[in-house]
Amino acid sequence: MRKERDGESTKATVLRAARQAFADHGFAGTSLAMISQACGISDGLILHHFKSKENLYRMVQEDLAAEYLQVINQASARAQDERQIALQTLRAAFQYWSEDTAYYRISLWAYLENQSALIESEARLTAGLAEKVKEMQIHGQADDRFSPVALLTMTIGPLHFWVRHREEFRRTLHLDASPEQLNRDFEEEFIRMIMKLYQPLLEDQADNKA
Amino acid sequence: MRKERDGESTKATVLRAARQAFADHGFAGTSLAMISQACGISDGLILHHFKSKENLYRMVQEDLAAEYLQVINQASARAQDERQIALQTLRAAFQYWSEDTAYYRISLWAYLENQSALIESEARLTAGLAEKVKEMQIHGQADDRFSPVALLTMTIGPLHFWVRHREEFRRTLHLDASPEQLNRDFEEEFIRMIMKLYQPLLEDQADNKA
Amino acid sequence: MRKERDGESTKATVLRAARQAFADHGFAGTSLAMISQACGISDGLILHHFKSKENLYRMVQEDLAAEYLQVINQASARAQDERQIALQTLRAAFQYWSEDTAYYRISLWAYLENQSALIESEARLTAGLAEKVKEMQIHGQADDRFSPVALLTMTIGPLHFWVRHREEFRRTLHLDASPEQLNRDFEEEFIRMIMKLYQPLLEDQADNKA
Amino acid sequence: MRKERDGESTKATVLRAARQAFADHGFAGTSLAMISQACGISDGLILHHFKSKENLYRMVQEDLAAEYLQVINQASARAQDERQIALQTLRAAFQYWSEDTAYYRISLWAYLENQSALIESEARLTAGLAEKVKEMQIHGQADDRFSPVALLTMTIGPLHFWVRHREEFRRTLHLDASPEQLNRDFEEEFIRMIMKLYQPLLEDQADNKA
DNA sequence: TATGAATGAGGGTTCATTCAT
DNA sequence: GATGAATGAACCCTCATTCAT
Q1: Do residue C149 and residue D169 have CB atoms under 8 angstroms apart?
Q2: Residues 6+ apart with CB under 8 A from C146
Q3: Second label for B208, Cα 20 to 30 Å away, from B134, C67, C104, C163?
Q4: H-helix or E-strand containing A140?
Q5: Is residue B151 part of a domain?
Q6: pLDDT along chain D (210 residues), means of 10
């Protein structure tokens, strides 16, 4: 059948199918046969290009990490006003995860399966974000009574939680909006909640306290 | 070898080992042989007691769900002051997850592997919590400019995130406290952040706005 | 549950269930669990009474052989006219097989599975029948140009074949009679065919030949 | 070990061994390990080529059905005189079954195990034969006082019975001819019996009756 | 007599991987 | 680059049988 002899396009095809399969079933739950069937490329050839299943998994993860990083970076680059960088980044992350759960799911799988490749990429990202929060605190843009790590946790944690549970919410709480509408609504609420949380103590409040 | 002939204790032994194994490696990643080796009970016997691997998994999940529910209920029962129920529940959940990640991990696995047993138990729990948040809003104990779902997401999401990433934080941010200390510190910070987030608009703030 | 402590009735219950199961699925295809489930008696107890699965199978076969022998003997005993013994026997066999195929099926299984218990009982029966055919030939009641074995084969073979294929005939040849009616019709035709086949050469035919 | 890398020959080898094994022990009684050992091909590879044990069984049956059909068709094609087609077919079937009981046994297994693949092929064959018997009756070559189905049963039934019991006959009736001789003798007797049975009523007999 | 706990072997099947073509 | 034949280990599960109770 497939005799195109184009290694690169073959690899890309495999990576696409593998990403979906790994996202759906994790590393252990995905067999090369599944990927092979999904993209019409014999498992022999898959192994020829990627050495081993584990290596293929790693490449999928690296691909995803790079893609995600790019999305985040582009978002902060797009922000003209420097004060809006944080906001833009947040929105970009939210939208990226909302639209395609592959990254979110594979990142979860990787965590559970102790596959560290993705984890490390995420760790670097987190460290960068923590640094930015600290800067915001220094510039009086974030409440400095909380540690950067704590604020970060309050920021990203809900995003993860939302992506994972939004459908369940819709079902069990009988919310009647469409998934898309629900998502947009939450995004706005989320931004407002984050702003309330981050808002530094107002002077008059500080006075009140005294 | 094993000649105890006590079905109940055998089942308990298996359940304990299975919980650990499933938490560590998920359903697909756990083989009966692993469990068998971990608890010294032949896989034939495991199947004799639990019919199938899937059923064993389900029972592990049911066990966990019941255990967690009990912890939560006991916590809210212990609270003397009615206003503190929410706080107590939050602390109990935080501590339960912090001490033993089995529940958290298996719940994640179940989500990823589309095993619905645990999911449904969680869905019921979430619905109950959303109801409580709504009541808090009615009684003026929570900011009613946000939807209950949104507040809930901002509450539980960070908990999940913390449990999952605390070690990574310690490593990449070079935090020098012990894991236990770090955990206690975060708990306090977390409570304070939640309180800030939930705090209803003060009247004078409302005035300021106007 | 079952605490009647009546070994004999237990054995009988097991034998009944086992006969059906073995008839349906053969020796290899029947598991003790199937029998156990069918009659509500634990497989431990089944083995306690019958030593082994193989022995249980043998007992089922012996039961069947004895039962069949009795039917045949009673038939020939009922025949008042000595000349009708053969006919009665034939009819009895036909009816026994037609009503309950357990004997027929288990006899087939035994043949295929090289389980000799039933085979030997059948062999003795066949030898007896061959002897009777020889006597009929001596008394001028059967065509003596054919060997007893050949006549016997022409007599019993069709019976077996009919029992096995009657349903298939009904289906593929679109015969519209009820199974019971079809069976009765064939029985009569069969008797007539056998009589034609057995009929000794008439004298005038012999003359014609000369 | 096996490094031939010739899929077709491998499949043929497996089919040969499988045919024997299934004929000997039936579907349930045959394990892939048995076949694997018999032909020196690992069960993994067997499954690679045949997908499943059940599918392998089906292919064995299809092979046999095709082979048998060919034998039958060739026999009737060989007959020069049109009146001898029936006879030739009968002889061919008799010889095919006598020489190799694989077809006969597997057909029996299939009947007992309710595996319909072979059954249907046989059903078609039987329907065709019934049609031919009817034609013979129309052309005055077969006694039309009997139904085609009845005549067919009297024809094929004894063949089956003979193949199954000839050895038993030899043993219990102390026949001293060789198996081959016995077989040839029976074939001739069988043909003569069939001819007597099929012979239409002679006119003078009809007269005698009147 | 009766149960069911316990075992160990073997069942069919899937799997990642190797290798000849 | 591409296929699919071939392997062997591991998978879940079923089985007949033993044995403590």
Answers
A1: yes
A2: D189, D192, D193
A3: B134
A4: none
A5: yes
A6: 75 96 95 96 96 96 92 86 82 92 93 83 87 92 95 96 92 88 96 95 58
Can you read off the two tokens belonging to residue D45? 């590879």
Rounded CA-CA distance B49/C192 in Å is: 61
Contact A165 B146 (CB under 8 A): no
Residue C23 burial by Cβ neighbours in a 10 Å radius (0-12, 13-18, 19+): buried
* C100 shares contact with chain D (CB less than 8 Å): no
Q: For position C81, what pLDDT does the model report?
A: 76
Cβ atoms of C121 and C63 within 8 Å: the answer is no
Distances (CA, A) of A199 to A151, B188, B197, C140: 11, 19, 10, 120
* pTM for this predicted structure: 0.90
Contact in structure between C92 and C74 (CB atoms under 8 Å): yes
Residue B56: inside a domain, yes or no? Answer: no
Q: Given pLDDT bands bounded at 50, 70 and 90, which one contains residue A82?
A: low
pLDDT at position C2, please?
Answer: 44
Domain count for chain C, please give it.
1
Residues of the domain holding C102: 80-209
DSSP 8-state class, residue C113 = T
In a domain, A167, yes or no: yes
Residue A2 maps to a domain? no
C192 touching D (Cβ < 8 Å): yes
In this complex, how many residue pairs, one in chain A and one in chain B, have their CB atoms less than 8 Å apart?
Answer: 134
Give the model confidence (pLDDT) of C37-96 as tens digits. Answer: 999 999 999 999 999 999 999 999 999 999 999 998 898 888 877 668 888 889 999 999
